[in-house]
Amino acid sequence: MNLIRFALVADAAATVATGALLAVGGSLLADLTGLPATATLPLGLFLVAFAAFVGWVGMQRETPRGATMLIVIVNAAWVVASLIVLLAGTFPLTLLGVAFVIAQAAAVAALAALQWVGLGRARALA
Fold first, then answer.
1. Which of these, 112, 97, 116, lies nearest to 35 by C-alpha position?
2. C-alpha distances in Å from residue 5, one per residue of 15, 22, 33, 57
């Protein structure tokens, strides 16, 4: 498995797990983290749908460059939005909530970086 495919499949797996956690366990997660309960279900459903797209892109015989760039951009936007949530104090996050936002933003940033490097490698081979 090449780097780009690995990064996309790992992203899809992590994203669907986070999405399911937010969608199914949203009210419990809201109590523990300080994230608004009204946001957990929509965010979770978005992440599950996004994970399906990312997984589909990752399983293509030839990885579509445009779709992969879109995934990198969405991931980068997610990281920026996470930082804004932390820095702006948008939600009354608990210590666990701050840790959750930081951990998922760091994971998404790492996956976006791997995807970016994978795109560069794929371009060099082409």
1. 97
2. 15, 26, 32, 8
The full 3-state SS of the chain, as one line of letters, equals CCHHHHHHHHHHHHHHHHHHHHHHCHHHHHHHHCCCHHHHHHHHHHHHHHHHHHHHHHCCCCCCHHHHHHHHHHHHHHHHHHHHHHHHCCCCCCHHHHHHHHHHHHHHHHHHHHHHHHHHHHHHHC
pLDDT tens string for the chain (126 positions)?
A: 699 999 999 999 999 999 999 999 988 999 999 999 999 999 999 999 999 999 999 999 999 999 999 999 999 999 999 999 999 998 999 999 999 999 999 999 999 999 999 998 877 776
**Is the Cα dihedral 69, 71, 77, 82 positive or negative?**
negative
Residue carrying structure tokens 């701050």: 98
Could you tell me the CA-to-CA distances from 87 to 1, 3, 24, 27, 126 in Å, in that order? 38, 33, 27, 23, 41
